[in-house]
Amino acid sequence: MADYYDLLGVSRDADADTLKRSYRRLARQYHPDINKDPGAEDKFKEIGRAYEVLSDPQTRARYDQFGEAGLGGGGMPDMGDMGGFADLFETFFSGFGGGGSPGGGPRRRGPSQGDSLRYDLTISFSEAVFGLERQVQINHLETCSTCQGSGARSGSGPTTCGTCSGVGQVRRATRTPFGNIMQVVECPTCDGSGQVIADPCSSCNGRGLQQVRKKLRINIPAGVDTGTRLRVSGEGNAGQRGGPAGDLFVVLTVQPHPQLRREGINIQSEITLNYLQAILGDTIEVETVDGPQPLTVPAGTQPGAVLNLQGKGVPRLGNPVARGNHLFTVKVQLPTKLHAEERTLLEQLAGHHTSKGHRHPHKSGLFGGLFG
User: Fold this and answer.
1) Judgement on whether residues 153 and 249 belong to the same structural domain of the protein
2) Is the dihedral of CA 217, 221, 227, 229 positive or negative?
3) Three-state secondary structure along 290-328?
4) Could you tell me the CATH number of the domain that includes residue 317?
5) What crossing angle do the helices spanning 83-93 and 16-30 adopt, rounded to 10°?
6) Which of the residues 12, 224, 274, 336 has an alpha carbon 20 to 30 A from that of 139?
7) 124-134 pLDDT tens trace
8) Do 158 and 127 sit in the same domain of this protein?
9) Residue 151: which residues within 8 A CB-CB, separation 6 or more?
10) pTM of the model
């Protein structure tokens, strides 16, 4: 027989969880009820034997030291102790033998939590930066106010399910390579509750829940972005049989701004200067999320330079005091036509520039002569 570790596809130092995961995966793959290939059943038994040995620390230690000789025989383990095999049947059949409760008997389904809901909300760029409180309307299930969630008409009540006698589960036999296994499943008549509604509530048709449209005020913190998910506890669907309500998850989408772009907690945009502003410097008014703000342009600013307004970016989510910066990428606009006076002044400037010993890297046309 092959090495047990090789059969399970694990290393010799694999922990218990790794062994179990590998065993369950292989058991599903080679279970005869699923895999009809010849030899699948033998393979299924081999990996069962390997897991039975390696999942027990004592037998694993003997196997590691002496191999199969240390196990006192190579047959299948005593089927009276189903240990690892019960774990397999739990995987396949959601229960083994007597099923349900710790005492071995079936159990009635108890309270169940309601479903969580999603609400998609679109907000503006500015709202994402500074946060807001927004009122929304949602549709969700609430406990029926007429029957208080029992599902029964006033004056009546649930009755014991005749199919499962009130236990919420029934037994059925499932064929396996080891014989018929008695499987415990949810009662199809009462859906596991153990009770049926003979005279249902007219308001909820016996469900115990009603669809309700409700207004909520959602607090959206500063600094959120597209994909941010806000949780509103207890505003999902109500639970059944007294179970807690689910939650409402508000998923945000932020509308793009026509001029501003967000990069993390910084905001980026472009500004266009004329060539004199770039050369001489200036103080200009720029658009920010805080409204118009003054920005100093240093003399000699080059195209592509980035100017910074500190603290005018996006607040850090959860810490609105800490804000990023607004970064402005400079574009310089050159004139396409010059007035005669402008041309004269520029030619004088070019001549002065040449007289100081600054040579232009390219010679052509008028300025070839000026800078030559």
Assistant:
1) yes
2) negative
3) CEEEEEEECCCCCCCCEEEECCCCCEECCEEEEECCEEE
4) 2.60.260.20
5) 60
6) 224
7) 999 999 999 99
8) yes
9) 144, 158, 197, 200, 201, 204, 206, 207, 208
10) 0.59
